[in-house]
Structures are given as C-alpha cells and as structure tokens.
Request: fold
Amino acid sequence: MKKLINDPANVLADALRGIEAAHPELRVDHQHRVIYRAEPKQDGRVAIISGGGSGHEPLHGGFVGPGMLDAACAGEVFTSPTPDQVAEATTAVDRGAGVLHVVKNYTGDVMNFEMAGELAAADSGVRVETVVTADDVAVQDSTYTAGRRGVGLTVLLEKIVGAAAEEGQDLDAVVALAQRVNDAGRSMGIALTSCTVPAAGKPTFDLPEDEMEVGVGIHGEPGRRRVPLAPASEVAALLVEPVLADRDATGSPAIVMLNGMGGTPLIELYVLYGEVARLLADAGVPVARRLVGNYITSLDMAGASLTVLGADEDLLRLWDAPVDTSGLRWGV
Amino acid sequence: MKKLINDPANVLADALRGIEAAHPELRVDHQHRVIYRAEPKQDGRVAIISGGGSGHEPLHGGFVGPGMLDAACAGEVFTSPTPDQVAEATTAVDRGAGVLHVVKNYTGDVMNFEMAGELAAADSGVRVETVVTADDVAVQDSTYTAGRRGVGLTVLLEKIVGAAAEEGQDLDAVVALAQRVNDAGRSMGIALTSCTVPAAGKPTFDLPEDEMEVGVGIHGEPGRRRVPLAPASEVAALLVEPVLADRDATGSPAIVMLNGMGGTPLIELYVLYGEVARLLADAGVPVARRLVGNYITSLDMAGASLTVLGADEDLLRLWDAPVDTSGLRWGV
Amino acid sequence: MADTDTGTVTQAQLVGWLAAFRDAVHEHGAHLTELDSAIGDADHGSNLVRGMDAVMVAVEAPPDSVGALLKKVGMTLVTSVGGASGPLYGTFFLRAGTAAGDATELDAAALAAVLRAAVEGVVARGKADRGDKTMYDALGPALEAYDAALASGADAAGAARAAADAAARGRDATEPMQALKGRASYLGERSIGHVDPGSASATLLVEALAAALADPPADP
Amino acid sequence: MADTDTGTVTQAQLVGWLAAFRDAVHEHGAHLTELDSAIGDADHGSNLVRGMDAVMVAVEAPPDSVGALLKKVGMTLVTSVGGASGPLYGTFFLRAGTAAGDATELDAAALAAVLRAAVEGVVARGKADRGDKTMYDALGPALEAYDAALASGADAAGAARAAADAAARGRDATEPMQALKGRASYLGERSIGHVDPGSASATLLVEALAAALADPPADP
Ligand SMILES: Nc1ncnc2c1ncn2[C@@H]1O[C@H](COP(=O)(O)OP(=O)(O)O)[C@@H](O)[C@H]1O
Ligand SMILES: Nc1ncnc2c1ncn2[C@@H]1O[C@H](COP(=O)(O)OP(=O)(O)O)[C@@H](O)[C@H]1O
Ligand SMILES: [Mg+2]
Ligand SMILES: [Mg+2]
Ligand SMILES: [Mg+2]
Ligand SMILES: [Mg+2]
Reply:
C-alpha cells in the first residue's frame, strides 16, 4: 500500500487537520469530526447537513459553505458517521427553521442518521427531515432489498437544495425539492482498478490488467460484472445507456456530471467526456450544465461515474445560484 | 496500461473534444490545438498565453479564462507544442498591447516558444515577451546546464500575471511582475508511483512497493534519489526543508500550493497538507493563502509537490483578484 | 458452565465475554475485513476492532448493574463504530441492557430473555429477515439453540455452547445465499458464494460468550 | 556509393534516406522511448515516429530542388514533433536546405557542406557542447568522420558509412556521461550509465543516410 498517510488508524483525524489548515473559511470540530462553515448562515434559514464515510473527498466537507452545506459529518474511511456526531452537528447548525439531512442510501448511513435524528429531536427539539439519495442504476431497485445506492447525484442535490435553503425556502419546500431532484437523477460507474482501504492495507479486489468492473459504487465494492477493458468510446456507452434506459432524459435540460473516482487523471476524464457528450447528443439529451472532475471519489480507485439529472428552469436557476465551497465555486 | 482513452495516438485530440464539450466558456481550435476564451479580452490589454505538453491537466487549458490566461497551446503528452501552434495563438490573442509567453523551463518548451516568438513577430509584428519559470529546487541551479525545471510555480505565476494584465498593466510591468514571482517561488516534488505515458504503454520507471522517488518533476522523470517509503510527516519534511533551505520564506506572507500529481486522492493531500502546514508554522513561515488539490499533474502518477511563493501586499491583491477558469475560480 | 457457586452469570463474566470478543475481533479482524472485501467495503474488521477497543476502555470501571454495563457497551459501540455494524451491535447491547435492568447477575433464564431482547433489537434496527445474508442469520439460530438447550435442562454455559455452535452453522449457511440487505445486496447474484462478514463476527460474539461462561474454559 | 552514373547524390536518394530513417524510427521507436524512460520522459520514439510519418506525407510529391525538399522536411518536423527533438531535427533540415539551395543533386563535397550546416544548426539551436550527452555527441563525430573520409578519397557513400560508424561510437560514448543539456540534466549524476536517446536516433539518421547511398545496399 502506497499512500501519503501516517498511521492508517489516524487517516481521518490527520485529514481533518489538513482540511482545517487548508480552509480558514471552515471550522473543524475535531472531537465530533464535523466540518462547519466558519461563518454560520443567518437565522431563520433551513440548514443542511450531510456526511458519510471518508474517502470520497471533496464530498462532503468540500461542499460546506455558502450556497451548499452547513456542516459535514465525517465517518471513518467508508464507514458512516455515528449518531452522536450527526446529532451534535444538527443541533449546532439549526437556525430555527429546521435541518435537512442528506443521506446516501447505505444501510449504515441510513441507520446512523436515523438514530441521530431521534437523538437531536429528543435533546433539542430541532425539526429534522431526511432525504436519502438512491441514484445508482447498477443496482436493481426493489422493496425487498436495501434499494439503490446513493452516489453522484448526492453532489448535484446538495448544490440545488443548498441554494434553495440559502434563498429562504422553508423546510417543507426544501424537502420536496430534494425529493424532486432525487427522482430525476440517475448514475452509473465503472472502475479500472480497486481502491485500497488504508486499514485493510491491500486492494479490496483484484482486477486483471485487461478487465474492468462495471456498475461499481463508491466504496470499492465489486461491481455487477467484469468485462474486458474497452476504449473510452465503449466505456461511455456502458455509462450512458443504462442511465438513459432507466429514465428518459430527452424531455428536459440535463445537468450532467462525469466524475472521477480519485485515481483517474483529468485528461482521461476529458477523453471520456468527449465520448459521453457525443452519445448524449445522439440520444437527444439537451445538456444544459456539466461538471467534469473529481467530486465524489473512492480513495485511489481509477474509474469514473456518470450522473444525469433531468432539470427544469427552476432547478437550473438554483444550480446557477452562487456557491462558495472548496469543491464547487461560482457566482461569488 | 489501464486508461480511459481510445487509441493512445489520439489522446490529445480526444481530450480537446472533451474539453470543448465540458466548457462552453472556452473555444477550442482543433487544428492548431489551442484553447481560447470564447469571449476574448478587451482591446488594449496585455494577453497571456502558456502551453506545454499535455498530461498536466488542469494546466494549462484549465487556467484559460478571465483573470488568467488568454490561450493555452496543447502539445502531445509530455511534448511541448510546436512553434506554429504558439505563433497562431500569439497572433490571435494580441489585443494591441503585446503578448506574454509563460514557458516552463524545459529545453523543448523553451526552443519551441522561442521559434514561435520569432515567427509571430516576423509575421504580424506582435510584441512578444517571455518568462521562463524555473522553480524546482530538486535540480541544481547552474549556468552550465539547462537550469531548473519549471513546475508548480507556473500555476501561481499565471494567476498573478493574469490579474495584472486584466487590470490593465502594460507588457513591461507584466514582464517585471512575472520575473518577480519567478524569483520568489520554489517547488519540490515526490512520487509514490511512476506515470504511464499512453504512447509508451508502460510505466516510465519501476518503483518497488516500499520506495518513493524524491525530487521528481512533472513528466514521470526519475527523481534525484530513491528513499524508503515514509509516513506523511516525513514526506512533508522532504518537501518543506529543501524549499525553505533554498529561499528563506519567513520574511513575507506566503502563497502555498500542495499539488497532487494526478493519481493521489484528495484525502491524502489533506493528510500531507496537515503536516506541511505544521512544518511551515514551526519554521515561522506566515502562510497567507493556500491551494490543496490537483493543479499541475503528471498523468496518473501518485505523488505531490509543494510550492512556496514569498508574496507581498501587491501580489496578494493580485492573487485575490477575480479569476474565472475551470481550474481556479473565485471573486466572480 | 456459569458461576459454579450460584449457577448464575456474574458481571465479571459478562466483562470476560466482552474481553473475549475484543480478543477475537483482534485475532480475526483481518479475516473479517477479507470477507467484507469480497462483498462489501473492506472495513468490518477495523470497525469492530475500533469499537471493542473503545468498549474495553469504557467498562474499565464496570457500572453497578448488568443493565448499566450492557447499555454502556451499546452506547459506546453506537458512538464509535458507525457503518451498519455500529447501530446493529449497538442496538443489540442497548436492548440487552434494557432487558437486564438493575440486576447484578443473571441466571440462565434471565440471560435467555436478555439475549432475545438483543437479537430482536438487531431485527428492529436492520429489518432483516432470515435468509437475507446478514448477522441475523447467525444470531437467530444462536438464540433458538440457546432456548432449546435451556428447555432440555442445560445451564447457561451449556446453552451458550449450543448457541455458539448454531451461530457457526448459521454463518456457514450464509455462503450460498444472495444478499438482500446491507451493502452486499448491491452485488445481486455476485454476493452468492461468500460468507457474510457480519454473520462471522456475530459467531465470534456468541463463541466469546460460550468461552466466558465455560469453567474451566472449553476451548483454551 | 552515391549515384553510380554521375557520382552525385540525387533527390530520389535523399527521399530514400528519409524513408529509411522513417522505417528505422518505426522499428526502433520502442527502444528510443525506453532510453528516454530511463533519463527523460518516455516520448522520444513516439515523437520521431509522428514526425517522420508527417515528413513522408509531405514529400510525397518532392519539391523541385534539394534545398526545397530539405526545408520542407525541416518545417514539417518543426510543426509536427514538438519537444526538444522537433526544433533540433527541424533546424537540422532547415539549415541543410538553406545550404543546399537550388541544387537538384549534391556531389560528395556539397553534401559535406550541407551536413555541416545542418549540424551547426543543431548546435546553434540547442547550445550543447560535446560531452553534454546529447544528439550532438553522435552528430559531431559523424560530421568529422564524413569530412575525414572525403579527404582520404572516399565518395559520398563511403563517407556516409564512415559517418554512421562514428555516430554509433559517439552514441555509445554518451553512456558514461553526465547530462548537462536537455531534460536528462535534471537527473544530475543519475543520468550516468544510460545512452542518450537523441544520440541513438541521430545514429539511426546517419545510418539511414549511409544505407540510402550504398548501392547495392551494404546492410540489406
Ligand atoms: N439490515 C441489516 N440487518 C442486519 N444486519 C445487517 C444489515 N445490513 C448489514 N448488516 C450486517 O452488517 C455487516 C456489515 O458491517 P460493516 O462492514 O461493519 O458495515 P458497512 O456495511 O456499513 O461497511 C454485514 O455483513 C451484515 O451482516
Ligand atoms: N540542448 C540540446 N542540444 C542538443 N540536443 C538536445 C538538447 N536538449 C535535448 N537534446 C536531445 O533531445 C533528446 C530528447 O528528445 P525528445 O525526447 O524528443 O524531447 P523532450 O526531451 O522534450 O521530451 C535528448 O536525448 C537529446 O539528445
Ligand atoms: Mg463501511
Ligand atoms: Mg517530451
Ligand atoms: Mg463494511
Ligand atoms: Mg522525451
């Protein structure tokens, strides 16, 4: 295992120290492992927090700031944060208008945020609502299982609901908006290599030099199937086709994200995005906004994921609204 | 070789198509392989172009936009652009106030830009000045050799001179400023793995699982020496000490960049930055601004570089000035 | 067997159980993570090592009652583990603590009630059915075997031994299952052919109980 | 030897030289990149393959004079290669073209003057000294050997053969050198012990000339 870390057991604590040093506009509570805006938002506004296992940077700490999140709770690598962390953050960010929890759909995340909501409501009476993102079309959707994973859409959702909260929409409206975004977004990912969890010390799975995993999430889980390594044009089809098959995206302007998994350099993402854009155009999807880069990563995994969100004028307006975080910044 | 590409011979052309699709605010001349602002800057302002081999993304195309570059000339992977590309871009961006070429100090880049300047001056009479960045303390400085490599400082320099050009400083002033930045900045890099040049198809060098290269540049060149893999705290010292030994940075506010080489995920950069910030504080260096992320990469290499630029109020003001590029954006 | 003088399980024995589980997750942590690598995210071992290390610090001065002890264990797991196993094992011990109440020791029947509450807590929290390929596929059979052994006249130690054996069989039975809960479910049919990591750690938990109650230890 | 009828080098032979060099960089491209991996950036082979492929397209309809032909080669290399070798080999042929002027063929002495101008162009552009571990360490000796052979009565083909042998010796002599120019110089002492990639490609260039002028080919 080759990583720029100290003791694998201290990766999270060490990374939080680095985040604090790198971003004076953030405040880090090292005891509870929560990243806050240094300057809290104004009273009477809905607050939004998210969180999850670490190893997905810039998600979520990189999205804390004006126009997006109020706080991010950092769990151990690939391990959701604990209820006490989330409860602490929930109470701290409430400005009297309630708190939205943005949770990625994983059993652990869902249970820990659930317990946190119970704790916070009991302790301080804060009104907590939750949206669980579940956008990964690689997973069969079924009421008999844990359902779909929450992946790339989480980034777009946090941006959009963050803008709504900032402009003063109330908690019910923000929750409804979150649900609307969640319903209209789909993602799909592939991996060229496994990642290595620091505490595990070796790759989560072995992938031969001539194969790739199709349908991976963001935790180094094996995907749905293994196929021969293919050129970017074919990889693009492996991403675009299942996303469009699951939800017709031709009707409305789309916000598209091509996301790198952490170990893939930007030049490759651009090569792949060229192919993705071509396929989307061929399919008649009107791409209105796009992000290409590392936004929700999986440690050092090489690979990429595609997210397509069907938007409307309202969502585009919220998308374009000012955001000032280390991971996304415009209009400020 | 596992990469999200098509034919290795077409990586640059394919990436340029992706850049064009991802960034409507840019205009790509595919024939000359030049990335321009879609909206050229106003007449009478100094224009700034840069360029170099590809594989360092977001450098340089990611720094084209208001407040920074007017155009970037993209060479093949790790191969400087050709004089005709640079001459074309030079003529195109000139707004009557002359053009600054920002060139990283490599024999190839220097010679190609030199020939381009001769061509452009002869063809169109554009006044061209050049600054050659040379900040890598891993290389002995000597008049008998090619001198030091230009690495991370190039990013900071392009930001600062971009701001000066935007506010209307004339070519002489911009050149003098560029020289001032070049004199006050130092960098140092390490690698945990080699990168793989697409056309070569295999890693440029082999690095055992328990070793790292100290003093690498941004082209997968072997470094100055190979040492046992060390924890982030020691790696930080390998970066900070030679940079500070080469130039005392205690006297003035510093702009610091901890840059990832392309294959290193953000969580590791934060761990490392925590250690770097501690060492800089111990050494009495007043860090005024900081960047942590992938800004000047080396394909899929895992590793990092540190750049420390001794600034003053004027440089900080130019640093803080609005910039609107895909790689750096604030104040807009 | 349980405490030979009184026939009951003492608080010290329960702390012994926890210590034995802590030792087991240290010893088998890499294996648990290995199982989690195949169908999960490669952290189950480190999650439980972190949790049980925190637990042993928390119970250095054991509280006054069995209920308080077990609640403290549950709260510590909830606040130190995270992931799926944190709330699940946390709820296991929180519910166990509630069921134990003020008692300072447990007889074999009281222990049965405590274990039942604990396992029901896991089900309430995780909503897994038997056959979903989770820790419940080890814990459920363990609980049934404990009750059955008790009904056939075994003492707490004997019942715990029967429970541990049943847990191990339950764990092994997860291998051919397709996961329907937890992150292994995302793999669909690719989850078949691997033992569920939570069922493996749950077996270590019940095995640790059997070892702590055995006197002299059955399996030194 | 050169054209057997007239004793001069024809334009067709010069195109044959370019074709032979194109074939050589294709055949040895991976090796050139390998050499560049050790002390550079692993692109020297692909740079020259790209450049010589472009050159052979550009000279499909050869221009009217040797000067125009060689200038076209130079311009094509300058605009298609990039890196250090693009301007250097580009200048080599641009200067060669200027020296050749309107001539439609070259005798052995004219070829000597053309080669001298070419190599001086490389030095003017790259400012390397002998011993700096660059292509000049192959080109310089090659030029001297050509002149010396000519002085001892050899024809163009014989002089080119002597030049190729000298280039190869010059290439081999770069191995123990410490690089002072080009990106290998960044390695300091670690550049010692590797053959310079540019000296290897320069040797292929001179070898291609010798092969093109040999009639029948010395080395089929
Ligand atoms: N809904 C559930 N009910 C019961 N057990 C579950 C459920 N979901 C997951 N588990 C158990 O949790 C184990 C995984 O724990 P762990 O790896 O620590 O958490 P995570 O999956 O969040 O990384 C699984 O092997 C499974 O036994
Ligand atoms: N200043 C110089 N003078 C002469 N030759 C040089 C000089 N600098 C570099 N070279 C030659 O160029 C070769 C490298 O070419 P190439 O790999 O194509 O370019 P780059 O170094 O830009 O990647 C070196 O092996 C060396 O022979
Ligand atoms: Mg986990
Ligand atoms: Mg090169
Ligand atoms: Mg797990
Ligand atoms: Mg090279």
Notes: The longest helix of chain C spans residues 11-39. The radius of gyration of chain C is 16 Å.
